[in-house]
Amino acid sequence: MKRILLSSVAVFAFAAAGHADELSDIQAQSKQLREQNQALMKRLSDLEKRQEKLEKQPTQAAAPRINPTDAMAADLPYKAYVKAPAPVNDDICWKGVCVYGAFDMGVGYQQHGSGYSPYSANPNAYLIQKQNAGSYFGVTGNGMSVSFVGIRGKQEIADGLYGVFNLQAAFNPASGMGDNGLSSITQNNGLGGNLSAQNAFGDSSRNGQMFATAAYFGIDSPTYGAFTMGRQSALLRDGTINYDPLGGAQAFSLIGTSGTNAGGGSTENSILDNTYKYAVGIGPVRLAAMIGARNGSNGSAPGNSYFGDVGFDYMGFSVDFTGGKIFDSVGTVTTPLTSAQMNTAYAAGFSTGSNGFISGTVSDNTVFQVGAKYTIGPWKFYGGYEYIRLENPNNPLAPGAIEQGAVLVLTNNTNFNVAKIAQTGWVGVKYAITRDLDVAGGAYHLWQNNFTSTAATAQACAVNTNQSAQCNGAQDMVSVLLDWRFAKHVDLYGGLAWARVSGGFSNGYAAAATNNSNTATNPLGPNKASSYNPTVGLRYQF
Q1: In whole angstroms, what is the distance from residue 157 CA to residue 98 CA?
Q2: Whole-number Cα distances in Å, 105 to 114, 145, 156, 412
Q3: Where are the domains of the chain?
Q4: E runs forming strands in 284-356
Q5: Which residues on neighbouring strands pair with residue 391, listed in sequence order?
């Protein structure tokens, strides 16, 4: 009996010890859970306070999506080091390859105009031309941006390294024809002495190429930058568009409708073949360099081109400094040949090439450009300056040289015995009235020195500044524009531009446009040609 009693006491002791251990565990777990609950309640309280604070703040509009058809986003490989956003669900993309583009067409009136060109990327004489005399009312095209269809792609080829490419085919929205500035000139050949019979035309770097605006590929690293090769925009064109308050709109911007600034003295150089471009971002600083290689041997084709850019962004302020040197640049392709000049070219046995016969001056160009803009709230302020020095070429081009498919049958290699200095300044502002409605305005002034090389011409320029294209003169444009993005991918725009040429720039203009009369009856004064041009249009971007 005693043994049984001792065993019972032992079992009870073990049970009591086990109960004590379990109770201790439960107490520890309860304490831990209470501490976790207190931490969660504190976190919840902090989140609720933060939520309440944010709800009391004004609602911020979502950051606008950068449309891939924008002039800067569509053709700026030097921006490629910025990591590309994921495609929006309505982008036309498949496995990293996207189709994008723009159509731009409208109606306009020009006080002094000429017929619509089916070839030119600038099919209307938005900036007054020599043949502009009577008024024009009718179809307009590419008023805000050049119409095009493009294919671009970005594919990861290694960890943090991407292969990229971009192809852009530009076209005239009214005729459906590919942009061809040189053909817009040569279609007027034989009419060189008959201004009233000529259509609008414009020299261009888009001259019938399948992919006239862009055809390049390369590699892109968010860390080490982008290296691209092929047909690309010159760094000057990139800067001109980025710092233009009208975004390079051809109907409203002097530096958009004229390629002088984008091409460093000649629009032919604004988009170049055979280029190698490298760009990198280091914090807020941008660095870029570009080389355009000669298409042929010395004397048979334009020469090499070299460009460099340094820029930075800080607290809403952005600025870029761009410089370049262009050899054997072909410029001033602005006068169709006369019938006599055509007959001489045929008699000399020149081939017409794919774009016909042209004439042009040849020069070695040195250029410097600075552009700046400042964003504060709904306001954006713009300004820029460009300096171009044109001198006689070290390697003159001979008659028969090829310029983007056209044959130079008349070459002037001595037009700049005295260096021509062309300078451009511009300012402007853009204001976002609402998220989908902007108003913008800009003023542009381009002027040149008197670079005549003979005493007789210099004396003539002193008496009458439009006696020669080498006399000092100026081009001006003042514009205002309203742009309403009333639907996804579609905007309606309307604006008014006033354009004027004076002095040497008005040499050879139609008398009705120049108003070459005395200042008593002409408020513009003598030797000036002007036109005001209201334009409305619809643009679809995808």
Answers
A1: 17
A2: 17, 9, 37, 37
A3: 71-541
A4: 285-292, 305-314, 317-331
A5: 364
Q: Which of 204, 214, 261 is nearest to 101 (CA)?
A: 214
Contacts of 499 (CB under 8 A, 6+ apart): 126, 127, 128, 254, 475, 476, 477, 530, 531, 532, 533
Tens-digit pLDDT profile for residues 61-78? 433 444 433 433 344 444
3-state secondary structure of 39: helix
CA distance 202 to 196: 16
Whose tokens are 């009214």? That residue is 174
Residue 208 is classified by DSSP as S
Which is nearest to 309 in space by CA: 391, 225, 229?
Answer: 225
Q: Which of 361, 341, 345, 362 is nearest to 353 (CA)?
A: 345
Q: Mapping DSSP to helix (H, G, I), strand (E, B) and coil, where does residue 456 land?
A: helix
Q: What are phi and psi of 502, to 5 degrees?
A: -150, 160
Amino acid identity of residue 296, one-letter, is G
CA distance 396 to 392: 8
d(CA 405, CA 333): 14
- pLDDT tens, 91-129? 788 888 999 999 999 999 999 888 888 888 788 888 888
Map tokens 């944010």 to a residue: 54
User: Which pTM was predicted?
Assistant: 0.80
Q: Where are the alpha helices (DSSP H) in 148-271?
A: 181-186, 235-242, 254-257
Alpha carbons 217 and 227: distance in angstroms, whole number:
8
Q: Answer yes or no: CATH 3.90.25.10 is held by domain 71-541.
A: no
